[in-house]
């Protein structure tokens, strides 16, 4: 099956930037070795350039949003992500980033500042109300990831107009109401997600 660099769900066009990630979420199709999401094969055997994506996006105004969300963590390829986002904004589109919120932790700098003006909305996978539950479901390879994700959420509204934390209903020991409380305490919105629903 052909590799999928961009794919459409509803009114949105999605950008599949990488298969890399510092988490290994037990509920992720990647962890379960299943690269097929909807009808798309999101497995990548190389890291395509920004121009390869830009050529495939077309006119960003044709879509409700251009969403960075694939079979890995988009901010692992932050330079490519920013280059594509700049193209989208220069051409009148709207951008959303779906992320694990670990970009600052990984890159050891405030990447949010680079996103200002280029990313309109960010959706951060909080996934759990405590470090223990987070570790159980997300299996982070970087120490301190849970706290780093919360710090990212707290800082994000300074740079990005719409900031939403998410958690998945129905995972063992995940208290979605508590996650919502934490999000509200950090000054960001919250959205409950459902297992295996992409977007
Ligand atoms: S952060 Fe996203 S891509 Fe990475 S393992 Fe978790 S669900 Fe999969």
Key attributes of the depicted protein:
alpha/beta; binds iron/sulfur cluster; 9 strands; seven-stranded mixed β-sheet; two-stranded antiparallel sheet; TIM Barrel; 199 residues
Q: Tell me the CATH topology.
A: TIM Barrel
Q: How many structural units, i.e. domains?
A: 1
The fourth-level CATH homologous superfamily is Aldolase class I
Supply the helix-strand structural class: alpha/beta
Into which percentage range does the β-strand content fall? 15-25%
**Major sheet attributes:** 7 strands, mixed
- Taken in chain order, the helices and strands follow as EEEEHEHEHHEHHEHE
Please provide the count of β strands: 9
What secondary-structure arrangement, pairings included, does this model have?
Layout: E1 6-9, E2 12-15, E3 36-37, E4 40-41, H1 50-57, E5 66-68, H2 78-90, E6 95-99, H3 103-107, H4 112-115, E7 121-125, H5 131-138, H6 145-155, E8 162-169, H7 176-185, E9 189-194
Parallel strand pairs: 2-5, 5-6, 6-7, 7-8, 8-9
Antiparallel strand pairs: 1-2, 3-4
Helix pairs in contact: 1-2
The structure holds iron/sulfur cluster.
Residues 21, 23-25, 28, 30-31, 72-73, 100, 125 line the site of iron/sulfur cluster.
How is this structure best described in words?
This protein is of the alpha/beta class. The chain has a single domain, classed as TIM Barrel, CATH 3.20.20.70. It is built from seven helices and nine strands; from the N terminus they run ββββαβαβααβααβαβ. The protein is globular and about 40 Å long. The mean pLDDT is 94. Bound molecules: iron/sulfur cluster.
Give a nutshell description of this structure.
The protein is of the alpha/beta class. The chain has helices spanning 50-57, 78-90, 103-107, 112-115, 131-138, 145-155, 176-185, and strands at 6-9, 12-15, 36-37, 40-41, 66-68, 95-99, 121-125, 162-169, 189-194.
């Amino acid at each position: 099956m052909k590799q999928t660099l961009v794919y459409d769900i509803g009114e949105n066009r999605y950008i599949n930037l990488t298969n890399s990630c510092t988490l290994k979420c037990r509920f992720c199709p990647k962890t379960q070795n299943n690269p097929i999401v909807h009808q798309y094969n999101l497995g990548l055997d190389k890291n395509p350039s920004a121009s390869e994506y830009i050529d495939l996006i077309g006119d960003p105004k044709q879509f409700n949003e251009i969403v960075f969300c694939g079979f890995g963590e988009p901010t692992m390829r932050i330079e490519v992500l920013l280059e594509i986002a700049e193209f989208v904004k220069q051409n009148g589109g709207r951008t959303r980033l779906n992320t694990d919120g670990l970009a600052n932790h990984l890159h050891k700098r405030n990447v949010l500042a680079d996103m200002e003006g280029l990313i309109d909305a960010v959706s951060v996978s909080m996934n759990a109300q405590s470090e223990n539950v987070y570790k159980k479901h997300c299996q982070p390879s970087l120490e301190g990831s849970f706290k780093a994700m919360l710090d990212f959420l707290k800082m994000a509204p300074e740079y990005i107009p719409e900031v939403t934390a998410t958690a998945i209903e129905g995972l063992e020991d995940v208290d979605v109401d508590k996650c919502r409380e934490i999000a509200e305490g950090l000054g960001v919105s919250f959205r409950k997600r459902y297992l295996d629903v992409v977007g």
